[in-house]
Amino acid sequence: MPTRERRLRLVDMSRYDVVIIGGGAAGFSAALVLARARRKVLVVDAGAPRNAPASHMHGFLSRDGLPPGELLALGRAEVTGYGGEILEGTVTELVRDGTSGFSVPLSGGRRVSGRRLLVATGLRDELPDIPGLAERWARDVLHCPYCHGYEVRDQRLGVLGASPDTVHYAQIVAQWSEDVVFFAPTGTLSTAQRTGLTARSIGLVEGTVQRVLVEGDRLCGVELDDGRTIGRDVLFVPPRFVPHHDLLQGLGCELDEAGWPVKDSTGQTTVAGVWVAGNVANPRAQVITAAGEGSAAAIAINADLVDEDVRTAVRDMGR
């Protein structure tokens, strides 16, 4: 009869076919495919989705307008309905476990292991350091016109342009309103860019935005460093996308020059047995895109496991 300590050790060192780190659209989509393929799957979810501040998500066929939390709740139910497991926790590192698997330590001391890994930890949005901006994030300070443009159509829209590259972003935002103002640092735009803004009746305000103005818990404009105030109802801000890639980097996965994981068409990284899906490797992935990438990665992971199962069966047959 094993001792209590031994029983606890056996529970803590649970082994799975696939451990998925991240319980967003990509992670749960992958878990659903793998659970339906009768794989033993664990999703480790820290419970801090990037789109948590948003009241609704859009552009997801048949789920348009659904609150993000409801989508994840549906995903959890589907995954567990097929026998997949979900664990709330934070992965502290990823470690090679011999030649055919990985050890996954969690905060609190628990440790699980998996034959394959899928990392779907997403990214964080790094906003300009402007007082009041972060507090309005996902309310009336937005980043994706395809996600939120329709809901703020025909309002007074502003676009914060941190660089000349954001001029095209402002041109896209202009599809949703005839009253758009582009805020640009002084002297950063070319003549062609100015002409393009003027041709589509996009206002240009040059200077440094000093703070966001709020009245009655609604954004009402911005104040510039020279004291000017420009009334706006909504601000679109292209943030700097920073992937949550620390776990991948610690495992030795190669990153490109911009800091994004190098992957093939299925999401496999440069470390054999490790895949990525969603915003951790694709900053432009919307919810529906991330879900598709999770599904594609899951199919590739299962095929890889089947190849290993065949090799193991042949080896065992010859004994």
UniProtKB/TrEMBL annotation:
<protein>
    <submittedName>
        <fullName>NAD(P)/FAD-dependent oxidoreductase</fullName>
    </submittedName>
</protein>
<dbReference type="InterPro" id="IPR036188">
    <property type="entry name" value="FAD/NAD-bd_sf"/>
</dbReference>
<keyword id="KW-0560">Oxidoreductase</keyword>
<feature type="domain" description="FAD/NAD(P)-binding">
    <location>
        <begin position="16"/>
        <end position="293"/>
    </location>
</feature>
<feature type="transmembrane region" description="Helical">
    <location>
        <begin position="16"/>
        <end position="35"/>
    </location>
</feature>
<keyword id="KW-0285">Flavoprotein</keyword>
<keyword id="KW-1133">Transmembrane helix</keyword>
<keyword id="KW-0812">Transmembrane</keyword>
<keyword id="KW-0472">Membrane</keyword>
<dbReference type="InterPro" id="IPR023753">
    <property type="entry name" value="FAD/NAD-binding_dom"/>
</dbReference>
<dbReference type="Pfam" id="PF07992">
    <property type="entry name" value="Pyr_redox_2"/>
</dbReference>
<dbReference type="InterPro" id="IPR050097">
    <property type="entry name" value="Ferredoxin-NADP_redctase_2"/>
</dbReference>
